[in-house]
Amino acid sequence: MGPAVGQPKHDSGGPNAVDRLAALLAEDLAAVDALIHQHMTSPVGVIPNLAAHLIDAGGKRIRPLITLAAARLLGRGGDGPRKLAAAVEFIHSATLLHDDVVDVSEMRRGKKAANVVWGNSASVLVGDFLFARSFNLMVETGDIQVLDILARAASVIAEGEVMQLAAANDAETTRERYMQIIAAKTAALFAAAAKAGAVAAGRPGQEAELLETYGRELGLAFQLVDDALDYGGLAAAMGKNTGDDFREGKVTLPVVFARDAGDESERAFWRRAMGGDRSEDDFPRALALLRRHDAISQTLAAARAHAERAQAALSTLPANAYRDALSDIADFVIERGY
Amino acid sequence: MGPAVGQPKHDSGGPNAVDRLAALLAEDLAAVDALIHQHMTSPVGVIPNLAAHLIDAGGKRIRPLITLAAARLLGRGGDGPRKLAAAVEFIHSATLLHDDVVDVSEMRRGKKAANVVWGNSASVLVGDFLFARSFNLMVETGDIQVLDILARAASVIAEGEVMQLAAANDAETTRERYMQIIAAKTAALFAAAAKAGAVAAGRPGQEAELLETYGRELGLAFQLVDDALDYGGLAAAMGKNTGDDFREGKVTLPVVFARDAGDESERAFWRRAMGGDRSEDDFPRALALLRRHDAISQTLAAARAHAERAQAALSTLPANAYRDALSDIADFVIERGY
Fold first, then answer.
1. Whole-number Cα distances in Å, B112 to A231, B32, B102
2. pTM: predicted TM-score of the whole model, two decimal places
């Protein structure tokens, strides 16, 4: 399964694990992209325009790649997994559109967010359209079991988003609560993407469950690293805009670690700042407290533990190039944080 | 099929046709309400609270009643049609929540709109939740054909909503364009509700198509009457807040009629007012122009024609109490405008 999780590889200057998986699945992925573009067409011009703005902006397609790889790992390619992969990307895209409205985001994938260009209303409604189209794609597979998996994931994602909204500016958010939120808003779709691939491959039993575990653990690792990167990661030099979570009053795991390890005056700072009474001047202090308590390394260590569980779930599945690639993805997710 | 469409009935002081259909389907409807409440539960408190605020506010449940009646008309009750009826109400509820965000609505069903009480973000996300739950309910029926019908309707509805958004403040909106919008945003769900009931009854052929036509034509009639009522209807004394469409720059059929029949100065008024440069003082003039050109009666006459087509679609279906009740609903929809 390659070197230990999170250790930079010798070939780290080459294509990363996602690019390598995309190359391995190049034919599938091209077909998925064709399905995506075919199903986002509409005579109502703003729909394909807004959808293309997001979908063609160079997202990594990591979720559909997982669906495709899970199916191939178990010996099945073809139409079914491709349609599901496109459906998974549509669910993800719809969620991003609605997220950006909720978070009043200005940027997404290095471009102006769709809500900035077309307005909140169009983003809400085109999100609805993509969400509906994801179900059209699933119906085309004729497989009620994958519909069940992805429809359940869709309601769990919405629950997670509402949970996150309700926890905003709640300075007392616990680690447990935070993990519930990211399990729902992020990991549920990774889990469903992997499981649906297995079920589409005609392997709904234990193999599907192992791939579901892989997806869930990978999704948790992915979100934890994202949340570390929102404070700049360990390098704090990613060129990425940092501090969005802080500004939005989202208590993520780095803050939980720093807050719970802090003395009374530090906890008072977090209570005030995460409770909603914060200014831009508070961000440097937040960063300093995260450093003092090693909160970013601790978060990355937690992510690494989940990535290792994701890899462990693969261990009894057929050993092939797809399994290796999925394992490498778990390494890659962690490496992003360093 | 009862008296001519749109003529007030002798028993108009008694229960209306929707109440009578609800009484005829009392057992089904109670089961649907139980399914609705069961599927809107969530450990995330704001979800059931916000959903109940809308769903328990006394909506007429006309769409689920149509699903139930279509199935019973063709001889089938039971679990399948009930789950679909609940799914249809969830799709409708999700649409209302998102509509109210898009339209910046303040009231809904005589109460503060959910977006006013909980905010736009919660309304968007709980709408997503209800939409996902509608698919959970459909999956429970195990019937991929009804999933197809309702998933298609869901994307058409979203297309219609985006079309309406794009047409806002477009003073030149044609009658044809307006009809496209309401066919998508309103009539598609009525059509799917009726067709899904027929398919759930095991009658996917011509009977399902006739019921689909019934639903579509009824939906068009329903929306036309709604749009007439937004200018007060013929009585202009419904106690309902009027003028929302005018204030939101929505060119509905009454405006199309008055504008197209107007002289140059009247057309200039509509161009300015519906083009976005309007004030509250313009509304009385708009009402006066609608009266001058009989635009409300013409709109109701157009609605009546659709209601008659809805009733005609029923004529070759089995004659029973459910068919009569569906026919009466078409009368009722028109009577609302008088």
1. 39, 25, 15
2. 0.95
